[in-house]
Design a protein that fits this description.
Blueprint lengths: L2 E4 L5 H6 L4 H8 L10 H4 L6 E7 L2 E9 L7 E9 L8 H17 L3 E7 L3 H9 L3 E2 L7 E4 L2 E11 L5 H4 L1 E4 L22 H6 L7 E2 L2 E2 L4 E5 L3 E4 L5 H5 L7 H9 L2
Parallel strand pairs: 4-5
Antiparallel strand pairs: 1-2, 2-3, 3-4, 5-8, 6-8, 7-8, 9-13, 10-11, 12-13
The structure holds iron/sulfur cluster.
């Protein structure tokens, strides 16, 4: 399971080891931290923003920062996105950016999350698309001269109100919540998220499914091992008819691969 925590100075050697090619370094940093290769001291530049380290059971697997591009809390910009070199191409980048969106929208309360990618970095562009970002107008000079080449900046963004599947379908812990709704968290040794519908109505009435059959209009399925995919307060059918244009199989595949 991928998680986020604040970046610590001791993460720097690991993060810097993920980028050992000059061209990749400039795609990652645009040279704003210094010339390749930078030192750990130069990397402390990231502490001027909100730096996050993504980690799983094996340790750090990714890094990014969040900052305010326009001195307003209404927009946060993701920067310096990097994934461990041996974890690339496996969905970690998309999952990390979706966690970043969750932090920005649900905890920080911003209205828009944006980022910038060079047109020379198509793998990153595709990862950002998969995480729900779409291209926006470039408000500043959009061409950089790097290593003798001209690289165009592409600004991408996602709005809090966008009809985005990742904003709508939540992964809740404790797929057996329908039979264990009466358990207090202190009486059980597994993590169990309370049904958001029950929470809203202060009841224990609603259930996801009975014997593999959905009985809730917000139930989108189960993700192995024990998570519920729940679209509350958007009805399941609305989610599936959204402009993401996916059928239920597609939705479940996407969430299962997160
Ligand atoms: S699917 Fe329905 S019953 Fe299950 S957690 Fe979501 S709102 Fe609650």
């Amino acid at each position: 399971m991928l998680r986020l925590r604040p970046y610590k100075d001791e993460d720097a050697p690991t993060i810097l080891s993920w980028c050992d090619k000059e061209k990749d370094f400039y795609k990652w940093t645009a040279g704003v931290m210094g010339e390749y290769p930078i030192t750990e001291k130069e990397f402390t530049f990231v502490k001027g923003a909100m730096p996050f380290t993504a980690f799983d059971e094996d340790g750090p697997v990714g890094f990014f920062t969040l900052r305010k591009p326009h001195n307003s809390d209404d927009e946060l910009r993701i920067g310096f996105v990097i994934v461990s070199s041996d974890k690339r191409g496996k969905g970690y980048g998309r999952e990390m950016l979706i966690l970043g969106q969750k932090f920005a929208f649900e905890l920080y309360g911003t209205k828009k999350v944006s980022l910038v990618v060079f047109d020379s970095n198509m793998p990153a562009y595709c990862c950002y698309k998969a995480a729900g970002f779409h291209e926006a107008a470039c408000e500043e000079d959009d061409t950089f001269k790097i290593l003798g080449e001209e690289w165009k900046r592409i600004v991408m963004e996602i709005d809090v109100n966008e009809d985005n599947i990742h904003n709508k379908v939540k992964q809740l812990s404790g797929a057996n919540m329908d039979i264990d709704l009466t358990s207090n968290q202190s009486d059980i040794n597994w993590e169990q998220t309370m049904c958001p519908w029950n929470k809203e109505e202060n009841t224990k009435e609603h259930k996801c499914a009975v014997k593999n059959t959905s009985i809730c209009k917000y139930f989108c399925g189960i993700k192995y091992l024990d998570s519920v995919l729940c679209s509350y307060p958007y009805e399941n059918l609305d989610v599936l008819k959204s402009e993401d244009n996916m059928d239920k199989t597609g939705l479940l595949e996407i969430l299962a691969n997160k």
